[in-house]
Amino acid sequence: MSVPAPGRLAGRVAVVTGAGDGIGRGVARRFAAEGARVLVAELNAESGAAVARELADEFGAEARFVRTDVTDKAQVHGMVAAAVEAWGAVDVLVNNAWGAGTVSRVETKTDEQLARGFAMGYYGPLWAMQAAFPHMKERGWGRVINMCSLNGVNAHMGTLEYNSAKEALRTLTRTAAREWAPTGVVVNAICPGAKSAAFRRMASEHPEIEAAADRANPMGRLGDPETDIAPVAVFLASEDARYLTGNTLFADGGAHINGVAWTPDLDGEQ
Ligand SMILES: NC(=O)c1ccc[n+]([C@@H]2O[C@H](COP(=O)([O-])OP(=O)(O)OC[C@H]3O[C@@H](n4cnc5c(N)ncnc54)[C@H](O)[C@@H]3O)[C@@H](O)[C@H]2O)c1
């Protein structure tokens, strides 16, 4: 793995939700490598604490874990307050956590499934942005990065609450970008394509599924959270992104160009 030159985020305070695994962990690691102080906001206490430890041990970073359920407004406010209390600022907010999906047809989705999807994918990020923005505005500098999805852009079957919440998050991204443009706070989205920890666990038992996913990607491989997706987040979090706002960056090896074949079995409810 090539290691980038250190320091592009030196002194910045970053909050990364869902940083205990997958893309969030990759982003937290790259941010730490670039000199950021990182608040690992994660539902899973074991993985969250472990990532905060590895940021300190491997990169010498200042890192803290705060157990956070992003579907709980008070906990989201507590997450932002913890960063401000520890380091006096929130410069970078990465809304990355997700863990609420079901696969079933539109006509059978329940209010509970939709409400949970929106709590996870829309309200959690919104509450975090509302809480972080005054601190960013005060310093005249801020970066918000929202993890969205090709599932929403391409309207994949079976995942209505995911698609809808992620597309609502992209609209929130553009609305906040427009409203906050004069303040020095830029707001962008990433639609990633990467092998999450869950995908890797599944692939260890079903290598043929991994091979098919790799073949389906224009670049011949599904991405890596730390080496393919996190560098895009580092760029968006850095000074280099100061004139870029309201954008969606597709970090997916070109998968969005022609779309992804997505034909889930919708006969059984989950
Ligand atoms: N992996 C991909 O290819 C892909 C594609 C499109 C979009 N995304 C988006 O990127 C983000 C990260 O995906 P990933 O593949 O790394 O997922 P992942 O499942 O590997 O990691 C998600 C993390 O979020 C945490 N989490 C779950 N519920 C939470 C909650 N209520 N509060 C706080 N933390 C919670 C999990 O414990 C986990 O650590 C998600 O928003 C996802 O929708 C990923």
UniProtKB/TrEMBL annotation:
Q: Which SMART domains has this protein been placed in?
A: PKS_KR
- Please state the span of the N-terminal signal peptide per the UniProt entry: none
Q: Which Pfam families match?
A: adh_short_C2
- Is Oxidoreductase among the key words of this record? yes
GO molecular function (one): oxidoreductase activity
Q: Where is the Ketoreductase domain?
A: 12-193
Which InterPro entries does UniProt cross-reference here?
A: KR_dom, NAD(P)-bd_dom_sf, Sc_DH/Rdtase_CS, SDR_fam
Decide whether keyword Acyltransferase is in the record.
no
Name the domain of life this protein comes from.
Answer: Bacteria
> What are the entry keywords?
Oxidoreductase
Return the Gene3D superfamilies for the record.
Answer: NAD(P)-binding Rossmann-like Domain
What family name appears in the similarity comment? Belongs to the short-chain dehydrogenases/reductases (SDR) family.
Q: What is this protein called?
A: NAD(P)-dependent dehydrogenase, short-chain alcohol dehydrogenase family
Q: Organism, per UniProt?
A: Actinomadura meyerae
